[in-house]
Amino acid sequence: MSTTDYDNNDVKIITRPVKSKNPVLIEGFPGIGLVGNIASQHMIEELKMEYIGSIESRYFPSIAVLYEGLINMPVRIYENVEHNLIIVISDIPISHTISYDVSNALVDWAESINVKEIASIAGIAIMDGGSKSSGQPPRLRCWIRSRIR
């Protein structure tokens, strides 16, 4: 295990050494409209972020993700040293039975690498723009919640 790895028997975070100093961590997990996942993937591609690791759990489904001809882990960690940024992205929904353990592991790991802020990106369905009478579907809005030390 490297000094940036985390293992609590239910959740393992395995990474190369993190080079960023006091980075911001953004997490994008699938939810309503896949907003967190899509926004995170866009940032990873636009910033040409480097894959540094993954999160594993015996409670995750046994799958691999095929992207641009390469097999990837379903929950991945990327880093961009220039922007002092780490992104955790998931292509699988995290079951409510393990979500508490995954979030605790993620926060513990973030503290161990001196993350200064955590931002969670998620979509929220709102009913103020769509209605049955107008024929318009409900809209999605992006929600960002962060925790600052």
Which fold does the CATH topology refer to?
Rossmann fold
Q: What multimeric state do the chains show?
A: single chain
Q: Which structural class matches the secondary elements? A: alpha+beta
The CATH class = Alpha Beta
Strand order of the largest sheet: 1-2-4-7-8-3-9-10
Shape summary = globular
Give Rg in angstroms. 16 Å
Give the SSE order as H and E letters. EEEHEEEEEHEE
> What's the overall average pLDDT, rounded?
84
Q: Major β-sheet, in short?
A: 8 strands, mixed
What CATH architecture would you give? 3-Layer(aba) Sandwich
Number of domains: 1
| N-to-C span | 27 Å
Low-confidence stretches: none
Tally of strands: 10
The count of helical stretches stands at 2
| CATH homology-level superfamily | PAC-like subunit
Proportion of helical residues: 10-25%
Task: Set down the secondary structure blueprint.
Blueprint: E1 6-7, E2 11-15, E3 24-28, H1 35-46, E4 50-57, E5 65-67, E6 70-72, E7 75-80, E8 85-90, H2 96-112, E9 117-126, E10 139-148
Parallel strand pairs: 3-8, 3-9
Antiparallel strand pairs: 1-2, 2-4, 4-7, 5-6, 7-8, 9-10
Structural features, described:
The chain has 149 residues and is α+β, with helices and mostly antiparallel strands. It has one domain: 3-Layer(aba) Sandwich (Rossmann fold), CATH 3.40.50.10900. The protein has helices at residues 35-46, 96-112, and strands at residues 6-7, 11-15, 24-28, 50-57, 65-67, 70-72, 75-80, 85-90, 117-126, 139-148. The longest helix is centred in the last third of the chain and has 17 residues, at 96-112. The protein is globular. The mean pLDDT is 84.
